[in-house]
Write a structure and sequence with these properties.
Strand content: 5-15%
Low-confidence stretches: none
Radius of gyration: 12 Å
Oligomer: single chain
Number of strands: 2
Structural class: alpha+beta
Number of helices: 3
Largest sheet: 2 strands, parallel
Mean pLDDT: 86
Length: 70
């Protein structure tokens, strides 16, 4: 498992939409270079915290803040 970020990155590139992928900073993911290559400049990767929950909460908070400003 764990290849969903590749699909998200490639989908962003093909659909020409910009998105942010939130991921725990630890452990380092050797696949990040591939994700960046698939998504090119359509994705931004934010490494947040040590766990999935840390990254999830930061991403959820960012999403809520985004919709509050629309």
């Amino acid at each position: 498992g764990g290849n969903h970020k590749h699909v998200v990155a490639l989908s962003c590139k093909l659909l020409k939409i910009r998105r942010t992928i939130y991921k725990p900073a630890l452990p380092p993911d050797q696949k990040l270079a591939q994700v960046k290559r698939f998504g090119e400049y359509f994705i931004e990767i934010k490494l947040i915290g040590k766990t999935f929950d840390d990254a999830y909460h930061d991403g959820s908070s960012s999403l809520c803040n985004h919709f509050r400003t629309l």
